[in-house]
Every structure is written in structure tokens, then in C-alpha cells.
Write a structure and sequence with these properties.
Blueprint (H helix, E strand, L loop, with lengths): L2 H14 L5 E7 L3 H15 L4 E8 L3 E8 H9 L1 H9 L7 H14 L15 H9 L7 E2 L3 E2 L3 H23 L4 H4 L4
Antiparallel strand pairs: 1-3, 2-3, 4-5
Helix pairs in contact: 1-7
């Protein structure tokens, strides 16, 4: 188990388990090309199980990596309300790769993190819109994201994500591989 695998488990277990669309994590590098090769290797291993890795942002020493379930993301973004919301702010929603490239550009060019990223991470549209309209204030609960609707249901979901991460981390420590832990779509 290497540092990259630990970070995948630490940040992406719910996605690997198939209970969340996607996760983001920042990762340091000393050799960018070596990291890209490593990400390509993970894509070669996990794409057949429905999991994809994409670098969304790079700076001098860190990358922002998006790990996602392609079929779930397609479903989430094709929801009429989510699609309309993204279209209104300029996203080309007809092709997933174009949509992800646009998100990457928004992250690169925004002084603040673009809040619509929540739609790529299984955050409900109501909470994304609530965060935007309340400017991140007055939430009902703060967990994996700021909750503006259905607080009790979100707390249960957050507990499920936490339990999944704890279980996956322990299984990784016990010798399971990420490939073995990744649920096929």
C-alpha cells in the first residue's frame, strides 16, 4: 500500500463502493509525468468497474483529482433540473467529457471554487442551490457538504459514507487491494 492508495481510500471509498457518484482529492507530486502514468494505470484497472480518474487542476506541486462513476454521473447530470442549472451557467451538458472539461476550466479560472461542483459529487441540487443563495451561511447541518434540506436524511447518508471509509481503510490495511474493494458497476 502506497501513499496514493491511502489517499484514494481516505477520500474516495464511497465512490469505490458505488454509493456516491464522485469524490475529489488534492495530491502532491514531485514528478508530474510519473503521477499521470499512475493515474492512467488506475484508469486501466478501474474503468472496467465503472470508476474513472481525471485531473481537474494542476499547480506547481499538487493536482486536484476527480474520481467518479461514469454511469452515475451521466444519470445525475441528465436530471432535468440539474441539466438546466448547469446549462444556465454555461456548461455544455450534451457530452460528459465536454462537461468535465468545462468544470476543469471553471476550477482553474475561478478565484473561488465553483459551487456547482457539488452536482459532480452527489450533492443534492437543493443543497447546492441553498449554499449559493445563502452564500454558505445558515445551513441546517455541516457534514460532507452544507445541508439546507432534509437534514436527518443527510446525517444518515454522512454516517454511511463515514462507515464505508472506515471499513475500506481497515480492509486496505488488512491486505485487500483497491481493485478488489471497487464494486463493479
Amino acid at each position: 500500500m502506497n501513499a496514493f492508495e491511502k489517499e484514494i481510500i481516505r477520500h474516495c471509498s464511497p465512490t469505490l463502493a458505488g454509493i456516491k457518484t464522485g469524490n475529489l482529492f488534492s495530491y502532491p507530486f514531485s514528478d508530474y509525468h510519473q503521477l499521470v502514468d499512475q493515474i492512467n494505470d488506475w484508469n486501466n484497472s478501474l474503468n472496467s468497474r465503472g470508476v474513472y480518474f481525471k485531473i481537474l487542476k494542476t499547480n506547481a506541486s499538487r493536482v486536484l483529482i476527480y474520481v467518479y462513476r461514469k454511469n452515475r454521473l451521466l444519470r445525475d447530470l441528465s436530471c432535468p433540473r440539474a441539466e438546466s442549472f448547469l446549462t444556465e451557467i454555461g456548461y455544455p451538458t450534451k457530452r460528459l467529457e465536454s462537461c468535465l472539461d468545462f468544470l476543469s476550466k471553471r476550477i482553474e479560472n475561478s478565484s473561488n471554487f465553483p459551487h456547482e461542483v457539488g452536482l459532480f459529487l452527489s450533492y443534492p441540487l437543493e443543497d447546492v442551490q441553498g449554499f449559493i443563495s445563502h452564500e454558505g451561511k445558515n445551513c441546517k447541518h455541516c457534514g460532507y457538504w452544507k445541508v439546507y434540506c432534509d437534514k436527518n436524511e443527510k446525517i444518515k447518508l454522512f454516517n454511511k459514507y463515514k462507515k464505508c471509509t472506515e471499513t475500506y481503510y481497515q480492509r486496505l490495511l488488512d491486505g485487500s487491494s483497491i481493485l478488489r474493494l471497487t464494486v463493479a458497476a
